[in-house]
């Protein structure tokens, strides 16, 4: 009776969304309670609720307004008040269950129902009950519980509780079956009522080996990706250090270039100032020379004035006559004559500086200290070292010799990443891909040995057969299917699609532009025969075309 009541209480404390005991329960305006994380997940599945900024109830569809809808959607459920009473009941329920399993109360559950107190010695994880020795024997022979595993409670060993998932429609029945046709988990009633016509209804426990293997493969693949991501993060961190060191070098170079230009401008300034000083010195010398000459002439004029004044004062006829003769001979006018004779002499009149502001501004606007070049990377040409995540054996059924792969290309066909390679000695093209979580491959035999391969369309490739002067087109589904063959006039080793109507094909001494029928549209070759455009070499089983 006590167990039935506990189960009834547990049913009221179970979230209808996740079918688990409430985790951080919150009650909406309609008084229905859910886990806070379940409310958040349910909101994100309802775009109309996000648009209307309300929280819909997953049970009755009634809306609850969000107190602060400007916050992110992930925080809407956090604004609802917690259900303290329900949380207290959950804590009490978990405490009682834990005490029955791990604590001091290890009494037999069946004896408790009969009013007896008997220490429990075993634990049934399926029924979640402690049993004494007598009840455990009865439990083991019972048809409904004989397959249940038992744990010993005599020591201090703590027992792990198995999570029970109850059917959403048949609340009293546990989900134990799986319909492989519908890919849906079921209880016994669902199997009888809804899945009678399904061919593959099995128990979940019978699929555990397959599920564990599938999960292990997924985890291993995820760990490989995690390892690759860790390596990439380390590379990127080291790249940050390289960028910082490169920035310091670039800044130093920019400052050095600027300093050189500033020094050049200062040199121009010094040269102009020196020129100004030289011309100024010349101008001052000329002015001083003119002053000296004026002083001499002034002295001479003063002497003539004194001589004439003395003659006039003395009244002597001879003195006045001599003075007269001096004026008549022009001796007094020598200065004027000299000025006339030297009138054409070039003298500096003024020194000015006229700045060429417009030209200088234009030069400064057009002045380029240099340019900062940025080199971009794509996913296929990163400088960082690649990290090997997996290896595929290229030997497949039908090979007569050791595979020797000459070229490779990768396609994404119907969401499946497919690797297409050419196997020269085995005269075939191979594709490798993952199908139904298992490695798969396809092999397409050819009449001759293939060499270069290139992608033509999303699901088509072209392969060069140099020995037979052919180019074949292969469809990738991701299995390989031969579509067409064209014959060329030369032996081509490598191919590259340029457009839907043309492709480039390389021989040992030239590169030809072909149409899709194999006709040469244009040919590119070297000026001499000593240096080929395409060089084919072998080194440790690897083939390189340059």
Helix content: 25-40%
Q: Main beta sheet: strand number and arrangement?
A: 4 strands, antiparallel
Assigned CATH superfamily of the largest domain? Zinc/RING finger domain, C3HC4 (zinc finger)
Task: State Rg.
Answer: 51 Å
Strand count: 24
User: Total helix count?
Assistant: 11
CATH fold annotation of the largest domain:
Herpes Virus-1
Topology:
Blueprint (H helix, E strand, L loop, with lengths): L1 H11 L12 E3 L5 E3 H9 L2 H6 L1 E3 L6 E3 L18 H18 L7 H5 L8 E3 L4 E3 L1 H9 L9 E2 L24 E3 L4 E3 L1 H6 L7 E3 L4 H107 L2 H13 L4 H8 L15 H10 L38 E9 L2 E8 L4 E8 L2 E8 L7 E5 L2 E6 L4 E7 L3 E8 L6 E6 L2 E5 L3 E6 L4 E6 L10 E4 L2 E4 L1
Antiparallel strand pairs: 1-2, 3-4, 5-6, 5-7, 8-9, 8-10, 11-12, 12-13, 13-14, 15-16, 16-17, 17-18, 19-20, 20-21, 21-22, 23-24
């Amino acid at each position: 009776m006590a167990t039935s009541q506990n189960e009834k209480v547990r049913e009221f404390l179970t979230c209808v969304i996740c079918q688990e005991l409430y985790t951080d329960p919150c009650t909406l305006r309609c008084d229905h309670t859910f886990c806070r994380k379940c409310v958040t997940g349910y909101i994100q599945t309802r775009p109309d609720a996000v648009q209307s900024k309300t929280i819909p109830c997953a049970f009755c569809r009634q809306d609850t307004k969000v107190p602060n809808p400007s916050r992110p959607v992930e925080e809407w459920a956090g604004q609802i008040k917690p259900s303290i009473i329900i949380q207290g009941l959950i804590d009490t329920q978990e405490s009682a269950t834990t005490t029955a399993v791990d604590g001091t109360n290890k009494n037999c559950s069946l004896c408790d129902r009969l009013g007896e107190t008997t220490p429990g010695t075993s634990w049934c994880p399926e029924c979640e009950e402690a049993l004494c020795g007598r009840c455990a024997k009865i439990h083991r022979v019972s048809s409904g519980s004989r397959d249940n595993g038992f744990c010993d409670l005599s020591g201090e060993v703590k027992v792990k509780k198995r999570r029970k998932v109850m059917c959403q429609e048949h609340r009293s029945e546990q989900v134990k079956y799986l319909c492989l046709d519908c890919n849906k988990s079921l209880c016994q009633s669902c199997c009888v009522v809804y899945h009678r016509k399904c061919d593959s209804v099995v128990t979940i426990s019978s699929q555990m080996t397959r599920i564990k293997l599938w999960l292990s493969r997924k985890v291993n693949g995820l760990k490989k990706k995690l390892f690759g991501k860790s390596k990439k993060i380390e590379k990127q961190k080291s790249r940050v250090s390289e960028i910082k060191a490169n920035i310091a070098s670039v800044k130093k170079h920019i400052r050095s270039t600027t300093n050189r230009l500033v020094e050049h401008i200062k040199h121009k300034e010094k040269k102009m100032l020196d020129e100004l000083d030289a011309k100024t010195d010349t101008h001052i010398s000329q002015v001083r020379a003119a002053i000296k000459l004026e002083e001499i002439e002034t002295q001479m004029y003063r002497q003539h004035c004194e001589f004439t004044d003395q003659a006039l004062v003395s009244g002597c006829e001879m003195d006045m006559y001599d003075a007269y003769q001096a004026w008549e001979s022009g001796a007094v006018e020598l200065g004027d004559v000299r000025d006339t004779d030297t009138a054409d002499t070039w003298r500096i009149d003024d020194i000015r500086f006229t700045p060429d502001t417009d030209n200088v501004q234009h030069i400064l606007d057009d002045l380029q200290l240099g340019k900062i070049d940025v080199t971009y990377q794509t996913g296929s040409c990163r400088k960082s070292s690649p990290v090997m995540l997996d290896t595929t054996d290229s030997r497949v059924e039908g090979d007569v010799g050791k595979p020797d792969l000459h070229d490779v290309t990768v396609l994404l066909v119907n969401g499946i990443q497919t690797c297409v390679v050419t196997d020269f000695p085995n005269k075939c093209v191979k594709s490798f891909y993952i199908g139904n979580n298992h490695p798969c491959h396809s092999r397409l035999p050819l009449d001759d040995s293939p060499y270069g391969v290139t992608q033509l369309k999303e699901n088509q490739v072209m392969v060069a057969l140099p020995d037979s002067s052919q180019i074949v087109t292969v469809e990738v589904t991701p299995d390989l299917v031969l579509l067409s063959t064209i014959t060329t006039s030369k032996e081509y080793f490598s191919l590259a699609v340029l457009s839907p109507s043309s492709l480039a094909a390389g021989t040992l001494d030239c590169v030809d532009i072909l149409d899709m029928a194999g006709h040469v549209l244009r040919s590119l070759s070297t000026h001499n025969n000593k240096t080929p455009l395409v060089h084919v070499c072998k080194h440790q089983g690897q083939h390189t075309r340059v």
